[in-house]
Design a protein that fits this description.
Oligomer: single chain
Number of strands: 8
Distance between the termini: 8 Å
CATH superfamily: Divalent-metal-dependent TIM barrel enzymes
Number of domains: 1
Structural class: alpha/beta
CATH topology: TIM Barrel
Helix content: 40-55%
Strand order of the largest sheet: 1-2-3-4-5-6-7-8
Strand content: 15-25%
CATH class: Alpha Beta
Shape: globular
Length: 266
């Protein structure tokens, strides 16, 4: 495959009546990994391990699915988020996944404006998140699975929209197990130059989400995936790229075509 780009797909996208059928389908379609939703993942560890034990398909990542809110004014909400993130990092370790995709907050700010102590609410949020990540980063290192900070577009969150903002947090912390995830769909909205942003983020990128400009499967919009793959090659990227997108029916046929489209560009 050239330079180790590995294709993965979210479990919910795969056709199949149960996990066994979905894993088999992933293998037939040419995926190397499956990304699992985090909600309730703790109860599925044995099922997942036994199902993939006879397959060449591995677990790429766990996608969020934790309750609470890291940037809530309510301490119990913050503590719940941290407790559940740690729980899912442990599961990621057992499943030998890269790590847990972590979104600091969806929607608008819920912390108070503490000017002049902090010039903006976003600055307060950043300071709070960094303190939480010191604790979470130590735990991530203990279990050996990454926290993957995900920047989202401005319509989904007010905080952490571009890769460079996530890199700033990683650089300030300097912790091995806090890295970032680059989602091509969000980058299409927020980044002025996607390949340039990828090259500048470099080694901090440990996971990628693939969707076209319209959130459909790659090949259904106008995103230039070839230049994105070239940028990933330039930074020596060798982790998974997981489909997180809408897949038009017939699903299996579309996935087959999508994999062929991506492989050609790789």
């Amino acid at each position: 495959m050239g330079y180790n780009l590995k294709l993965a797909v979210q479990e919910s996208i795969l056709p199949g009546r149960d996990l066994s059928e979905r894993v088999q389908k992933a293998e037939e379609l040419g995926f190397e990994g499956i990304e699992f939703w985090g909600r309730g993942i703790e109860d599925r560890v044995d099922e997942i391990l036994s199902t993939i034990s006879t397959s060449r398909v591995k677990v790429s990542t766990i996608c969020a699915g934790y309750r609470g809110n890291l940037l809530s004014p309510d301490r119990s909400e913050r503590e719940l988020a941290m407790k559940e993130i740690k729980s899912k990092l442990s599961v990621a370790s057992k499943l030998e996944a890269v790590g847990l995709i972590t979104v600091p907050i969806f929607g608008r700010a819920v912390l108070p404006d503490l000017y002049p102590l902090y010039p903006t609410v976003e600055e307060l949020e950043k300071r709070l998140l960094i303190e939480e990540l010191k604790d979470l980063g130590r735990y991530a290192e203990d279990v050996g699975s990454y926290i993957l900070l995900e920047p989202l577009n401005r319509y989904e969150t007010h905080f952490l929209n571009r890769l460079e903002q996530a890199v700033e947090i990683c650089e300030e912390l300097g912790m091995e197990y806090i890295k970032i995830m680059a989602d091509v769909f969000h980058m299409n909205i927020e980044e002025a130059d996607i390949p340039k942003s990828i090259r500048e983020a470099g080694d901090y990128i440990k996971h990628v989400h693939l969707a076209d400009s319209n959130r459909y499967a790659p090949g259904y919009g106008h995103t230039d995936f070839k230049s994105i793959f070239e940028a990933l090659k330039d930074i020596g990227y060798e982790y998974y790229m997981a489909l997180e997108c809408r897949v038009p029916e017939p699903r299996e046929e579309t996935l087959k075509r999508t994999v062929e489209f991506l492989r050609r560009l790789m």
